[in-house]
Amino acid sequence: MAAFFTGPVKHEAPEPLEGPVVPTIVGGTVIWFVLFLVQLPFYGWFDDHGHTWWVWTCLAGGGLGLIGIWYVRKRDAAIKRAAAQAAAESAAEATAE
């Protein structure tokens, strides 16, 4: 156990993983809304057993997912815009030489 506390070990942080972020968030949002709609006909049962928070949690998850979709689409567009700008600048530098 003492080997873990001998001092700080510095490691280089790994590169962040980039994947299909927008479809992932859209899929999760759809799942939250489907869960809400599936539970809605059984609202009486949830109310009788004190579990109405399950229904409203699914609705909140879907609503927050809509905000997430907006956010990741803007982020994705900004990343693509920055990459295009960097490519244009490097092409301009290459032609200037």
Overview of the molecule:
- The chain crosses the membrane at residues 21-41, 53-72.
- This is DUF2530 domain-containing protein.
- Keywords: Membrane, Transmembrane, Transmembrane helix.
- InterPro entries: DUF2530.
- This protein has three helices and no strands.
- It is mostly helical.
- The protein has one domain (22-91).
- The radius of gyration is 23 Å and the shape is flat.
- The model has no long low-confidence stretch (mean pLDDT 90).
Please sum up the structure shown:
With 97 residues, this protein is mostly helical. Helices cover 72% and strands 0% of the residues.
Main sheet: strands, sense, barrel: none
* Secondary structure: helix percent: over 70%
Mean pLDDT: 90
Q: Sketch the topology as an H/E string, one letter per element.
A: HHH
The structural domain count equals 1
How many helices? The count is: 3
List keywords for this structure.
flat, mainly alpha, 72% helix, 97 residues, single chain
Helix and strand layout, with pairings?
Elements: H1 21-39, H2 43-48, H3 52-96
Transmembrane segments: 21-41, 53-72
InterPro entries: DUF2530 (IPR019681)
Keywords: Membrane, Transmembrane, Transmembrane helix
